[in-house]
Write a structure and sequence with these properties.
The complex is a heterotrimer of chains A (about 375), B (about 170) and C (about 375).
Chain A (H helix, E strand, L loop, with lengths): L4 E8 L11 H16 L8 E5 L26 E4 L5 H14 L5 E9 L5 H5 L13 H16 L5 H13 L13 H5 L3 E4 L1 E2 L8 E10 H6 L5 E10 L13 H14 L4 H4 L2 E3 L7 H8 L8 H7 L22 H17 L12 E8 L4 E8 L3
Parallel strand pairs in A: 2-3, 2-4, 9-10
Antiparallel strand pairs in A: 1-7, 1-8, 4-7, 5-6, 8-11, 10-11
Helix pairs in contact in A: 2-12, 10-11
Chain B lengths: L25 H9 L5 E6 L5 E2 L13 E7 L2 E10 L12 E8 L6 E5 L12 E6 L12 E6 L15
Antiparallel strand pairs in B: 1-2, 1-3, 4-5, 4-7, 5-6, 7-8
Chain C lengths: L7 E8 L11 H16 L8 E5 L2 H4 L8 H4 L6 E6 L3 H13 L5 E8 L6 H6 L14 H16 L3 H15 L13 H5 L3 E3 L2 E2 L9 E9 L3 H4 L4 E10 L13 H14 L9 E3 L5 H11 L12 E2 L4 H4 L6 H13 L13 E8 L5 E8 L6
Parallel strand pairs in C: 2-3, 2-4, 9-10, 9-11
Antiparallel strand pairs in C: 1-7, 1-8, 4-7, 5-6, 8-12, 11-12
Helix pairs in contact in C: 4-13, 10-11
Amino acid sequence: MSRPVAVVGVGQTKHGARRSDHSIPGLVREAVDRALLDAGLEHADIDAVVVGKAPDMLEGIAQPEQFLVGALGGHMKPVLRVHTAGSVGASTAITAAVHVQSGLYDRVLTVAFEKQSEGNAMWALSPSMPFTPPLVAGAGGFFAPYCRAYIRKTAAPMHIGPMIAANARENAGRNEYAHLTEPMTVEDVMNSPMLWDPIRYLETCPSSDGAVALVIANETQARKGPRKPAWIKGAASYAEAMWVPGRDQVSPRAGKVCARHVYDKAGIRNPWTDIQTAEIYVPFSWFEAMWLENLGFCAEGEGWKAVDRGDQKFGRHLPVNPSGGVLCTNPIGASGMLRLGEAALQVMGRAGAHQVENVRHALGHAYGGGAQYFAMWVVGAEP
Amino acid sequence: MQEPPAEPVKYIDTNVRLPYHYVAGDYRARQLRAFKDRKILGSRCAKTGKVFIPPVPNSPESFAPCTEFVEVPDRGVVTTFCIVNIPVIGRSLELPYVAASVALDGADISIFALILECKPEDVHMGTRVEAVWKPDGERQGNHEDILHFRPTGEPDAPLESFINRL
Amino acid sequence: MTATLRNVAVVGFAQLPVVARDEHRMATEMLYPVVREALAQVGVERDAIDYQVSASTDYMDGRPFGFVAALDVMGSWPPRQDLHLEMDGAFAAYYAWLKIQTGEVDTALVATHGKVSEGEPDRVFNLALEPYYHGAIGLDPTSTSALQASAFMARTGATDADLARVASRSRAAGTRNPDAQLREAASAESLQRTPFKVRPLRDGYLPPIGETATCLVLAAEGKAETLCDRPAWIHGTHHISELQTIGARDLTRSASARLAAEKALAMAGLASAREVDLVELLATNPVEELILLDALGLEARSGGGSGPAINPSGGPLCAHPIMSTGSIRLGEAFRQLAGRAGERQVAKAARAIAHGAQGHCLQQNVVFVLGSERRWS
């Protein structure tokens, strides 16, 4: 970026099925307080707040950022609310980065959350739409056919999805904040009920309550510390129309274009060698293989082979989702920011038990809509 | 006057009830009305000639208007699908059932459709299907006029013919 | 803030005339002709625009992810750099301006849509209140506005007749705006005879339910001049939110509007809002207009007199397509400075303020100061 911009603080909640110990304001405060502490800053130091979350129907409150202004420390400050479907957490963090990049804001707090237990998530995601007979419940019903198409095109063996799911769970065991951490074997996954063939129950993201907050700041603030910052080397959010004839929904163009844009800005020539870890948005197992290709880590048709070899496991060549990812933790609005925040933690050397070694560059990625919205960033150890 | 609660209140239940009165829009309305006559209408892009089902006022690809309505056959090919084991809200379908992306002959994009009258394991990417309509006299000119799609029994279409129309 | 910023201008604006209900088009279908028209105004194809921001709200649309359909009508192919805010369009325009300030893009389109007639806004925006108490007791935007109006009238001594006069002036202005929904004048006396919807707010003081779609085009210096013969340069802009909690705020004043205006005016290098020729305010009732004028340091005009023209478009009282209303304020300011305001043209308009707002009782406010000349050289 022309003006150096960095993540200087990260805070997240312990994610779970039902955080009944907190109201929504309490949940976001848990993340916000942690992020500010992490950054060594007070609310008075924050110039603006950028909030992101997925459809308001998930909690039954319209434009909830309005009632949350106080809890977010946004009183008498600029507050914006982003919504780009599943990618929202990521596009929100990127929006916050744009604030600092503009030169008009020095320190911005960005927050993303979802408290799905308070509403009916299934209904909120797939209510009866006018003029169309209801067909499938849940996002999985929409995406499973494209996972099938990927399997057919690549002739990938059926154990790949379950391998991804089992590996994600193993990773989550190293993440104190993750929702689902109980280990499971590939066999456990293959024996779990089929939800939308070819996606099984244990290959599907959970419904979680959770929040995450980042403090993004300019170079002066970043160099003050107390933390080693994660420099945002390249960031972008793209979207494409849905009903384009011949649109590739297995490896969408918007994903490729967005990745190219971000890699160019960050000076990444070969992601497979130049990036040491990637937090990518995998709500259904097979997307890990698909995104490895879409993001240029693997050639077309080769993503599943990287999984089969275990190249993306913790401790191997390119650990993917060392946090456990969306498969283990999915407060929908927060998930995208968790990816970008986890990438930052890796570069900052603060990922605890799931810290990958010698991370110089990390990718954070999210997608949403009918695989139409893509938002991602590359963070680096150097400005 | 009720007694105050003995314990601090931890949860409150609120039911949200919001009425909406939606406009179908002329394009969609025309398609729905044509269902009464067992016709499936789409719209054609003025620039590229591509056909969109359901009909839309503009092509999302070329950004040009779609001013012409065209009829497409009520048969096509399953481009991809999944077999669903979770009940969907608002409809009672016997589980498991097949939810598919169907490219109708002559259409340049796919629609989502329910595939019945076969065993789910007999559906493939490439299975040829046809619409099953409500009988004459029962069709209202709305989205319930097409009950589902069923395999026609023709040989599967080759992968190349539909892999770009997922 | 005295930094030199990029000169960015509004160079195009298109909207459909606001109507009570468009029976022919879905929400996003209304947006297509408007994006085409905005591009035609600036004389380029969609590919020439670097960035797009859309604004709408799912709950009003009655569809989760309702905004996703806007992609298909905004020319989102090939893939575009894009963002969507669940906010009024004026805030989306602010963000587009901010994005251009980074230097990464030079042009942006800002699109809004929303079929207000399909749902019941009072019910929808009741759900925007904190759910434990304010929402649960059934407050809605009209009743929270009424609380604000009562408090304001008690503090200032403003009367029902004063409100009627403010509303009547808006209605008179609306007769000169072919895009407004209400285009018939209404005397103060006749408005004062309309029944109270929620005391002290009468039906005649409240906007009609109506809908539209809009598209603004913003461009940086270097591009702006190629797209428009008279760009409306943004001299200053800022936005501020305050707590929602009704009981924790001085409802009779808008601290957030005041602060947003101060910062915007300072950026613009203006000492006071009195230096502009017109203001377009997102005031959804006469009390909001009086509060906003006070926040801007302007006097309410008692018919004629000096000072900027107030809502020469007729303002939200004549057309309030929720989520688009703020974009229209900015679009009207553009039309005025570009000399395209027809019968409602303010003579020799060279400077304008456009204001947008959302949330109960003016909770969130954005202010733009615009001018015919560039701000920074």
